[in-house]
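Bumping with the actual sequence this time:
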Amino acid sequence: MGAELTSIKVNGVQKLFQGERVKKENGEIYWGRQAPILFPIVGKLKNNKTYIDGKEYFMNQHGFARDMNFKVIEKTNNLHRYVLEYNNDTIRKYPFKFKLYVEYLVKGNDLNVNYIVENIDNKEIVFGIGGHPAFCLDVSLNDYYIEFEENEEKATVLMLKDGLISNDKINLDDILEKRKILKLSKDTFLKDAIIFKNLSSTKVSLNSYSNGKILDFCFKDFPFLAFWSKVNAPFVCIEPWYTTADNYDNCEVNYCNKENMLHLKVGEKFNCGYTIKFN
């Protein structure tokens, strides 16, 4: 389902959050997913609807790929490949013909995740795409921090309001200590995800004050990087995005005109990916 990662073990230790199998003391789950693929939108459409060629379409947050069965193309010890091809269900939500390929390749302690979108329509197709992997936190959230590869002097911080991009101006120094460190705490994600654009870094690391570096996350193909968790949950998501949610106040209602959407000509392929390097 969704060609979604369900487990990443390094030396027998689980690194990927285990979704609905992880429960609060009262039996509730924190979050039912683990690493959904976001396609053909990232984030939320205003009122969950948009217009394509004058016709109204509805899509839930982060699109439909995460809730559809992919076909297995190849499975070996260190390479898995899957594909989702347009069908009658997708056409009702998204009137474009496509193939979405997902590849997982293990090299040593590195996991390479690759997305390929192929236009098999007779017209240009338009889409957004992104990743959403959640990583286990074994101790208190206060023990963890994200370190950016470079000092972020020109980055922009975006925040969400009701799942949509807010126009509120956020001071970078209020988010990043020394323009480089994002400290995690129970209050970090009270207002939902924190999204960065215009980053100088192409890599961040997840670190623990108690246990040192957990992993490096390389995202050079992506113009946005988001971080998110549920309040007091034992995971943090590191999310490379090509596009973002609609704007709260100034929403473009026409899908193909939305900011940062990817446009792919007939017969062309689009490729992007990220790498997780475990210690």
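The tokens above came from a reply further down the thread. Helices lie at 88-93, 172-175.
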